[in-house]
Protein backbone atom coordinates (compact mmCIF):
# COMPACT_ATOMS: atom_id res chain seq x y z
CA UNK A 1 0.00 0.00 0.00
CA UNK A 2 2.96 2.24 -0.75
CA UNK A 3 1.35 4.23 -3.56
CA UNK A 4 -2.25 5.21 -2.74
CA UNK A 5 -4.48 7.46 -4.81
CA UNK A 6 -5.11 10.87 -3.26
CA UNK A 7 -8.34 12.54 -4.38
CA UNK A 8 -9.15 16.21 -3.88
CA UNK A 9 -12.51 18.00 -3.80
CA UNK A 10 -11.98 19.41 -7.33
CA UNK A 11 -12.74 15.92 -8.73
CA UNK A 12 -9.05 15.22 -9.39
CA UNK A 13 -7.00 12.25 -8.21
CA UNK A 14 -3.37 11.18 -8.42
CA UNK A 15 -0.97 8.47 -7.23
CA UNK A 16 1.41 9.55 -4.45
CA UNK A 17 4.09 7.76 -2.45
CA UNK A 18 3.17 7.33 1.22
CA UNK A 19 6.19 8.41 3.31
CA UNK A 20 4.90 7.78 6.82
CA UNK A 21 1.84 6.82 8.84
CA UNK A 22 1.67 8.04 12.43
CA UNK A 23 -0.69 5.67 14.32
CA UNK A 24 -0.85 8.05 17.33
CA UNK A 25 -2.73 10.73 15.43
CA UNK A 26 -3.77 8.81 12.29
CA UNK A 27 -1.74 11.14 10.10
CA UNK A 28 -0.27 10.28 6.70
CA UNK A 29 2.76 12.13 5.32
CA UNK A 30 3.34 12.75 1.61
CA UNK A 31 5.91 14.86 -0.24
CA UNK A 32 5.04 17.10 -3.14
CA UNK A 33 5.96 20.13 -5.23
CA UNK A 34 4.81 23.40 -3.63
CA UNK A 35 4.00 24.69 -7.14
CA UNK A 36 1.66 21.80 -8.05
CA UNK A 37 -2.08 22.35 -8.60
CA UNK A 38 -3.08 20.11 -5.68
CA UNK A 39 -1.12 22.31 -3.28
CA UNK A 40 -3.21 25.31 -4.37
CA UNK A 41 -6.40 23.28 -3.88
CA UNK A 42 -5.42 22.03 -0.40
CA UNK A 43 -3.64 25.02 1.14
CA UNK A 44 -4.02 25.25 4.92
CA UNK A 45 -6.82 22.72 5.06
CA UNK A 46 -9.13 20.85 2.68
CA UNK A 47 -10.95 17.51 2.63
CA UNK A 48 -9.27 14.65 0.75
CA UNK A 49 -9.78 10.94 0.22
CA UNK A 50 -6.88 8.50 0.18
CA UNK A 51 -7.55 5.16 -1.51
CA UNK A 52 -5.33 2.12 -0.88
CA UNK A 53 -5.52 -1.38 -2.34
CA UNK A 54 -3.52 -4.45 -1.31
CA UNK A 55 -3.83 -6.91 -4.18
CA UNK A 56 -2.50 -9.92 -2.21
CA UNK A 57 -4.72 -9.35 0.83
CA UNK A 58 -7.59 -8.18 -1.40
CA UNK A 59 -8.14 -5.30 1.00
CA UNK A 60 -9.32 -1.85 0.01
CA UNK A 61 -8.98 1.09 2.44
CA UNK A 62 -10.97 4.23 1.69
CA UNK A 63 -9.76 6.97 4.00
CA UNK A 64 -11.32 10.40 4.33
CA UNK A 65 -9.69 13.22 6.20
CA UNK A 66 -8.33 16.71 6.31
CA UNK A 67 -5.18 17.62 4.39
CA UNK A 68 -2.84 20.57 4.88
CA UNK A 69 0.33 21.72 3.17
CA UNK A 70 3.45 22.50 5.20
CA UNK A 71 6.32 24.29 3.44
CA UNK A 72 8.41 26.12 6.01
CA UNK A 73 8.02 24.34 9.31
CA UNK A 74 10.60 22.09 10.97
CA UNK A 75 8.58 19.11 9.75
CA UNK A 76 9.31 20.03 6.10
CA UNK A 77 12.99 20.76 6.85
CA UNK A 78 13.35 17.33 8.48
CA UNK A 79 11.59 15.55 5.59
CA UNK A 80 13.80 17.41 3.11
CA UNK A 81 17.01 16.50 4.93
CA UNK A 82 15.99 12.84 5.24
CA UNK A 83 15.14 12.49 1.53
CA UNK A 84 17.58 10.94 -0.89
CA UNK A 85 19.32 13.39 -3.25
CA UNK A 86 17.71 11.74 -6.30
CA UNK A 87 14.26 12.23 -4.74
CA UNK A 88 15.07 15.88 -3.96
CA UNK A 89 16.23 16.44 -7.55
CA UNK A 90 12.57 16.50 -8.73
CA UNK A 91 12.17 19.87 -7.02
CA UNK A 92 15.00 21.46 -9.03
CA UNK A 93 13.00 21.35 -12.24
CA UNK A 94 10.31 23.45 -13.88
CA UNK A 95 6.89 23.62 -12.16
CA UNK A 96 4.53 20.68 -12.78
CA UNK A 97 2.29 21.14 -15.81
CA UNK A 98 4.44 23.56 -17.83
CA UNK A 99 3.84 23.16 -21.61
CA UNK A 100 6.75 21.98 -23.78
CA UNK A 101 7.15 21.31 -27.54
CA UNK A 102 8.87 17.97 -26.82
CA UNK A 103 8.79 15.36 -24.01
CA UNK A 104 10.70 16.87 -21.09
CA UNK A 105 11.67 16.00 -17.51
CA UNK A 106 11.76 19.72 -16.78
CA UNK A 107 15.12 19.19 -15.04
CA UNK A 108 18.15 21.42 -15.65
CA UNK A 109 20.56 19.73 -18.12
CA UNK A 110 23.43 19.51 -15.59
CA UNK A 111 21.48 17.18 -13.27
CA UNK A 112 19.53 15.13 -15.81
CA UNK A 113 20.57 11.46 -15.39
CA UNK A 114 22.97 12.49 -12.61
CA UNK A 115 22.87 12.60 -8.81
CA UNK A 116 22.92 16.28 -7.79
CA UNK A 117 25.21 17.64 -5.07
CA UNK A 118 23.87 19.24 -1.86
CA UNK A 119 25.01 22.57 -3.27
CA UNK A 120 23.05 22.07 -6.51
CA UNK A 121 19.99 21.08 -4.49
CA UNK A 122 19.90 24.16 -2.25
CA UNK A 123 17.56 26.25 -4.49
CA UNK A 124 15.13 23.31 -4.76
CA UNK A 125 14.17 23.44 -1.07
CA UNK A 126 11.66 26.26 -1.59
CA UNK A 127 9.74 24.09 -4.08
CA UNK A 128 9.39 21.21 -1.63
CA UNK A 129 6.28 20.75 0.50
CA UNK A 130 4.94 18.17 2.91
CA UNK A 131 1.28 17.21 2.72
CA UNK A 132 -0.20 15.90 5.96
CA UNK A 133 -3.53 14.07 5.96
CA UNK A 134 -5.27 13.44 9.26
CA UNK A 135 -7.66 10.55 8.74
CA UNK A 136 -11.16 10.92 10.15
CA UNK A 137 -12.81 7.77 8.82
CA UNK A 138 -11.49 4.59 7.27
CA UNK A 139 -13.64 2.17 5.31
CA UNK A 140 -12.04 -1.31 5.32
CA UNK A 141 -13.27 -3.81 2.69
CA UNK A 142 -11.98 -7.34 2.09
CA UNK A 143 -12.94 -9.31 -1.01
CA UNK A 144 -13.56 -12.98 -0.21
CA UNK A 145 -15.24 -15.98 -1.84
CA UNK A 146 -16.79 -16.62 1.64
CA UNK A 147 -18.54 -13.28 1.29
CA UNK A 148 -16.99 -9.86 1.29
CA UNK A 149 -16.50 -8.13 4.67
CA UNK A 150 -16.56 -4.46 5.49
CA UNK A 151 -16.04 -2.25 8.54
CA UNK A 152 -16.00 1.49 9.15
CA UNK A 153 -13.45 2.87 11.61
CA UNK A 154 -13.36 6.25 13.23
CA UNK A 155 -10.73 6.93 15.86
CA UNK A 156 -11.61 4.84 18.89
CA UNK A 157 -14.52 3.02 17.26
CA UNK A 158 -15.08 0.30 14.69
CA UNK A 159 -18.37 -0.86 13.19
CA UNK A 160 -19.06 -3.85 10.94
CA UNK A 161 -21.30 -2.94 8.02
CA UNK A 162 -22.60 -4.90 5.06
CA UNK A 163 -20.39 -4.79 1.99
C1 LIG B 1 4.12 5.79 -8.93
C2 LIG B 1 3.92 7.29 -8.82
C3 LIG B 1 4.28 7.91 -7.64
C4 LIG B 1 4.11 9.30 -7.51
N1 LIG B 1 4.45 9.89 -6.33
C5 LIG B 1 4.22 11.21 -6.16
C6 LIG B 1 4.50 11.83 -4.90
O1 LIG B 1 4.96 11.20 -3.93
N2 LIG B 1 4.24 13.15 -4.79
C7 LIG B 1 3.73 13.89 -5.82
O2 LIG B 1 3.51 15.09 -5.64
N3 LIG B 1 3.46 13.35 -7.02
C8 LIG B 1 3.69 12.02 -7.21
N4 LIG B 1 3.42 11.43 -8.42
C9 LIG B 1 2.89 12.28 -9.52
C10 LIG B 1 1.39 12.57 -9.27
O3 LIG B 1 0.64 11.41 -9.55
C11 LIG B 1 0.88 13.75 -10.10
O4 LIG B 1 0.99 13.46 -11.46
C12 LIG B 1 1.62 15.04 -9.79
O5 LIG B 1 1.87 15.16 -8.41
C13 LIG B 1 0.83 16.28 -10.22
O6 LIG B 1 -0.40 16.26 -9.53
P1 LIG B 1 -1.39 17.52 -9.51
O7 LIG B 1 -1.39 18.07 -10.90
O8 LIG B 1 -2.69 16.94 -9.11
O9 LIG B 1 -0.86 18.47 -8.47
C14 LIG B 1 3.59 10.06 -8.60
C15 LIG B 1 3.22 9.40 -9.77
C16 LIG B 1 3.41 8.05 -9.89
C17 LIG B 1 3.01 7.38 -11.19
TrEMBL record:
GO terms for molecular function: FMN binding. Residues 109-118 have a biased composition (Basic and acidic residues). It comes from the Bacteria. Pfam families: Pyridox_oxase_2 (PF12766). Residues 12-70 form the Pyridoxamine 5'-phosphate oxidase Alr4036 family FMN-binding domain. InterPro entries: Pyridox_Oxase_Alr4036_FMN-bd (IPR024624), Split_barrel_FMN-bd (IPR012349). Residues 93-120 are annotated as: Disordered. PANTHER family: AGL049CP, PYRIDOXAMINE 5'-PHOSPHATE OXIDASE ALR4036 FAMILY FMN-BINDING DOMAIN-CONTAINING PROTEIN. This is Flavin-binding protein. It comes from Qipengyuania vulgaris.
Amino acid sequence: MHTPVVATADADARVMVLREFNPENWTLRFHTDARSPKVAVIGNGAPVAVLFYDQTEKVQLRCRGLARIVCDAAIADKAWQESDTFARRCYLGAPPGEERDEPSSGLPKDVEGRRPSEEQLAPARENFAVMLVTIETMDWYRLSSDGHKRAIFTRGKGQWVTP
